[in-house]
Design brief:
single chain, about 375 residues, alpha/beta, Rossmann fold, 3 domains, five-stranded antiparallel β-sheet, 10 helices, 15 strands, elongated
């Protein structure tokens, strides 16, 4: 979501009287690739670009392809394929044995339904969004190539393409359930085969940091780099000024009940104050956060669990799959910055349903098949 937000911000600053632009989007991935489906790059006719579709090896060629799309005023699909290890066939080094397809779409700023305008509408949403985009047709007519629509526009999208509503809803349900973008083939009533990317976009992760010591600064800094929505609970007079500029909200401990939890929220208890940690833990646990972690040794957590049970709160912290204490991945972290990295990595691993272990020991591919 951070990449999308950066693209939207850049889009809003373009002087359209002097510039034109195209949006490059990764729409298909086979085997190894640095970026996955949905990676985006906004390219201006002047050569300025934001975002990325690879680790840096394709962007140079993408600038040329984007300008071709701008000049022709029509979308195109470009295939980058190094599965046969011949980088010279595309003039760039992909760096991985993989095949990716990139859609280059000229952007019309006067069209309120262009892809970036549609993406602008989901920035504040706290639920996943679904987008549809035509990325392939098997006839000489490219009229609908690049057609982009949101899930709420499904009726108009179906009518325009003349495809089965039931088939599109069925595939959309699969994407919702898997929480992963995927390309599907559809047949129109005229017998035309159309490839449609059904993209699943998560809202940005909402982070609630509970604490006001200097280690909050390091954690907020990493969270900001990751593009997470930052909310801080603590003594405002103790917090560094930078926290107020990085955070969406800064609340006192007494105001913590104003925060709500959704399925994309992580709560991190790092107040170093036993009583406040226990109070906030009880407060947020009632909302069943998908992730909550607490700094400190395991014996501190067990002491808190015993005390909660003695006070009538029959909570078993050790056996709550979404509660983590000690918090963070075991990387031997010592400094506030290293601890922040460890915790952020654990949060990502938890939400992506990964073990957080060494990739060298992972069986199979780094990424699951699209």
């Amino acid at each position: 979501m951070k990449e999308i937000r950066n693209i939207i911000n850049t889009y809003g600053q373009i002087n359209w009287k002097k510039e034109q632009a195209a949006l490059a989007t990764v729409v298909s991935v086979e085997e190894s690739a640095y970026r996955r489906i949905g990676a985006r790059m906004l390219v201006q006719s002047s050569g300025i670009w934001i975002g990325g579709i690879s680790g840096g090896c394709l962007e140079g060629d993408a600038l040329k392809r984007a300008n071709v799309a701008i000049f022709k005023k029509e979308p195109s699909i470009v295939v980058y394929d190094t599965m046969d290890e011949d980088d010279h066939q595309i003039g760039v080094g992909l760096g991985c044995n993989g095949r990716i397809e990139v859609l280059f779409m000229p952007i019309d700023p006067t069209d309120e339904n262009n892809p970036i305008e549609r993406l602008k509408k989901i920035q504040a949403k706290r639920i996943p969004s679904i987008f549809y985009q035509v990325i392939g047709v098997n006839t000489g007519s490219f009229k609908n190539m690049g057609l982009f629509a949101a899930e709420e526009d499904i009726a108009e999208f179906i009518t325009t393409l003349n495809i089965s509503k039931e088939a599109l809803i069925e595939k959309t349900t699969i994407v919702h359930q898997r929480r992963k973008s995927k390309v599907f083939e559809f047949m129109t009533s005229d017998g035309e085969k159309i490839s449609i990317l059904i993209e699943f976009l998560r809202p940005e992760l909402k982070l609630i940091i509970v604490g006001d010591n200097y280690d909050v600064n390091a954690f907020a800094g990493i969270a900001n780099e990751l593009g997470w929505e930052i909310n801080v609970v603590g003594l405002k007079r103790k917090l560094d000024k930078s926290i107020f500029s990085l955070s969406k909200q800064v609340l006192s401990y007494e105001e913590a009940n104003q925060l709500t939890i959704d399925e994309y929220t992580a709560v991190v208890l790092m107040s170093h104050d036993y009583k406040w940690d226990m109070h906030i833990l009880e407060l947020f646990q009632k909302q069943n956060p998908p992730y909550m972690g607490m700094l400190g040794p395991k014996k501190r957590m067990i002491k808190m669990q015993n005390e909660l049970q003695e006070n009538g709160n029959n909570i078993d912290l050790e056996n709550i799959n979404t509660f983590f204490s000690p918090i963070g991945l075991d990387i031997g972290a010592e400094s506030p910055e290293e601890i922040a990295l460890s915790v952020a990595a654990e949060i990502i691993a938890h939400f992506r349903e990964r073990a957080g272990s060494f990739l060298k020991f992972r069986a199979g591919t780094i990424h699951e098949r699209e």
